[in-house]
Specification:
- The complex is a heterodimer.
- By secondary structure, chain A is α/β, with parallel strands linked by helices.
- Chain A is built from 9 helices and 13 strands.
- In chain A, a hairpin with a 6-residue loop joins strand 12 and strand 13.
- In chain A, helix 4 packs antiparallel against helix 9 and helix 5 packs across helix 7.
- Chain B is α/β, with parallel strands linked by helices.
- Helices cover 43% and strands 14% of the residues of chain B.
- In chain B, helix 5 links the parallel strand 5 and strand 6.
- In chain B, helix 10 crosses helix 11 and helix 10 packs across helix 12.
- The longest helix of chain B is centred in the last third of the chain and has 23 residues.
- The chains are: A alpha/beta, B alpha/beta.
Chain lengths: 331, 363
């Protein structure tokens, strides 16, 4: 069994509290080194997990590894993509993959299709897989509309200076940080091939977007069918936090949190509903979702075939974010 | 010609062994069942039976008095105390009221060894294993008292066309790739009913000496071989997914696993977690981070295990092999299973259903 050596760039919360414990539980993986712009932070995390911390250096001088996890702000990744591509190191990038569609394609092209992945782990959720199955197999016919509503009033952030408040690092606000997940899920479950933005309304806080409402057409299928996406993500007020998929006579409702259950109810019925779920490999927690995305990515590397989280499959997500931000005062 | 009594012929193993023995003409068969409901399946297949309660002296003599091989499969499963008394009575009466030179074959179980597994430090027999162990002692003691030869055969997992474990294996094979620790190289502790039937025949033929034996496949089959055999019977190719087997626990690992016990407590118990948080609030930050790291790893491990539970191997596949004393006259199990007719279940014949009962013995 091949043991994949992982190097981790960026030891922020997502790496420290999620990626590292998940990777330490995967048998054919070995974390070779970790590094962070804050030496102290890297050393604390290394000490907590008994890993090797290396000094933060230019990407060309980082130690050997088979796969590099990029858990650093999106704006500072370009050099890393180039350096790792030159060294034939596969890259698993935390979402979002890139700021613009152009950058996305440029970075993606540096790697073989199976050698570059983007961590949209919500694709692994039991609900996402089931909705995808339902739509692609036409269980209830063609979807009429998808409604996504995500978010909550921001309260405590748990950080002194969250990088999200720094547009030079984050590249955006809620859309880049959070909304990208549900947009990606909408594209994933429909197997989308394109989109058309019909209308949008973005509430800006200086250069950071705090709430976005948009209506899009998702294009899918060989005949380029259209499905309306009614989308809202907000850090300013409470949202329903659901994904609803409407069919001619049935409404499916799934939580945006990890779950395996999809609620089914008849449109115009008595309001009674049933729940359904796929019968095996149901991801119901975040840790399970992260585990599955690593499992899929490493499996793709092994087989030399693009996995479900190959960067190419996230290109549409980057493109729609790029388009939604166009003309807003932050680029 | 030997007259073989099968006590508990209506049970899962007893019924299949009875059907296999009915193919052999070198002896006569006396399946003994408690009542007509439990014997219905055998009688439907044309096997005449005797009915009665062995644990009652008055009926035991009539059921066994003319039998010179007594194969005891029966096990009472009522309340523990009642079961203990009944099981002892069955064994004692089988020995006391059988023919003068009768050989007693008491079918015990490999469960008397507990369920030794690499990851278990101490293995003790289950209630079933302890009951059978008690039965062994009763059989040996009573055999000595009445001067009869007693053969104790400890059965492994019994496989056969009518056995639950074989149905389970069939369902597992049908469901897709079979997860097997170490590719299924572990010895399986299985025995096929064909081997059980042959053991009885050979004991009846005087080919074995009395004693306590382990009855397993000859030679012991690995789990891979067991599944491959079943798959071939199903006309399927077996797909195996080899997974890492459990690591052997040593005293040092038991001690080292105490922190894991503590972390599992944190993952699973709110009280534990709250108490730990209270202590940690007074501890240095790097210790806080260490504990959080260990907690995260433990929680991830538990959640991944939950996700992959369908990909876990059946627990029996990682048991250690047991058994160290075997009968000497048995054929290779593979050869036995391939012998046409002799060790296969008989075809159902509508002209033979529900025959008359075998008359009880009268001196």
């Amino acid at each position: 069994m091949k043991i994949y050596r992982i190097g981790i760039v960026g030891t922020g919360t997502i790496a420290e509290q999620v990626h590292i414990p998940v990777l330490l539980n995967i048998p054919n993986v070995s974390i070779e080194w970790i590094t962070d712009i804050s030496k102290e932070r890297a050393q604390k995390v290394a000490s907590a997990y008994r890993l090797r911390a290396v000094e933060f250096r230019s990407p060309d001088n980082l130690p050997e590894c088979d796969v590099a996890l990029l858990a650093i702000p999106v704006r500072v990744r370009a050099d890393y993509y180039q350096a790792f591509a030159k060294r034939d190191v596969a890259v698993f990038a935390e979402k979002p993959f890139a700021l613009t569609f152009e950058d996305h394609k440029r970075f993606q092209a540096m790697f073989p299709p199976y050698g570059i992945g983007c961590g949209y782990m919500r694709r692994m959720y039991g609900t996402s897989r089931l909705l995808k199955e339902i739509i692609s197999e036409g269980w209830f016919g063609e979807p009429v509309a998808i409604r996504i509503s995500e978010g909550e009033r921001t309260t405590a952030t748990g950080a002194d200076r969250p990088y999200m408040d720094n547009p030079r690092l984050s590249g955006g606000g809620i859309l880049m940080e959070l909304g990208c997940h549900t947009l990606d899920t909408a594209f994933f479950i429909t197997n989308a091939t394109g989109f058309e933005i019909l209308e949008k309304n973005i509430i800006m806080d200086g250069q950071i977007d705090r709430k976005i409402e948009a209506k899009l057409h998702i294009l899918y299928g060989v005949e380029c069918r259209k499905c309306l996406l009614d989308y809202c993500v907000s850090w300013l007020d409470r949202q329903k936090n659901t994904i609803e998929v409407e069919f001619p006579s049935v409404l499916l409702v799934a939580s945006i949190s990890p779950s395996k259950y999809v609620k089914v109810q008849r449109i115009g019925g008595t309001g009674k509903s049933a729940e359904m779920y796929l019968s095996n490999l149901n991801v119901e927690t975040s840790y399970q979702a992260f585990f599955m995305e690593w499992f899929e990515f490493l499996g793709g590397l092994e087989r030399k075939t693009p996995s479900v989280i190959a960067a190419d499959k996230a290109a549409l997500t980057t493109s729609v974010i790029d388009q939604l931000y166009k003309n807003e005062k932050m680029k | 010609m030997s007259r073989i009594a099968i006590i508990g012929a209506g049970g899962q193993v007893g019924a299949e062994v009875t059907l296999l023995l009915s193919n052999h003409s070198g002896h006569s068969l006396v399946p003994v069942c408690r009542n007509r409901s439990s014997s219905a399946f055998l009688r439907y297949f044309g096997i005449p039976c005797r009915h009665g309660l062995i644990n009652e002296p008055g009926s035991a003599y009539g059921l066994l008095g003319d039998c010179d091989i007594i194969a005891i499969f029966a096990l009472s499963k009522s309340l523990p105390r009642r079961a203990r008394i009944t099981n002892s009575q069955i064994i004692e009466n089988s020995i006391k009221y059988s023919a003068e030179d009768a050989k007693i074959v008491y079918f015990s179980t490999a469960a008397v060894y507990g369920e030794p597994r690499p990851e278990v430090f101490f293995s003790r027999p289950s209630a079933y294993g302890r009951e059978k162990l008690h039965g062994e002692r009763v059989a040996i003691r009573t055999g000595r008292l009445y001067g009869k030869q007693v053969f104790v055969l400890r059965l492994g997992h019994v496989c056969g066309d009518l056995q639950r474990i074989t149905n389970l294996i069939r369902d597992i094979i049908k469901a897709g790739p079979v997860c097997m620790p170490d590719g299924g190289r572990n010895l399986s502790n299985t025995v096929y009913t064909a081997t059980v039937a042959e053991a009885i025949i050979n004991i009846a033929s005087g080919l074995e000496c009395s004693g306590v034996y382990d009855l397993m496949c000859v030679p012991q089959w690995t789990w891979r071989e067991v599944y491959e055999y079943k798959a071939s019977r199903m006309g399927r190719r077996l797909q195996i997914e080899s997974i890492e087997g459990p690591r052997r626990k040593r005293a040092s690992t038991v001690i080292k696993s105490l922190p894991r016990w503590f972390l599992n407590g944190m993952v699973n118990s709110v009280f534990f977690k709250e108490a730990t948080n209270k202590v940690l609030s007074r501890m240095p930050e790097n210790l806080n981070m260490r504990i959080r790291a260990a907690y995260s790893k433990t929680k991830v491990k538990a959640e991944i295990a939950g996700l992959l539970s369908h990909r876990m191997a059946h627990p029996a596949l990682s048991c250690d092999p047991v058994g160290n004393k075997f009968l000497v006259s048995l054929s290779k199990t593979g050869d036995l299973l391939n012998r046409e007719n002799l060790f296969k279940l008989p075809e159902w014949d509508s002209s033979k259903v529900f025959p008359c009962d075998i008359p009880n013995y009268k001196d």
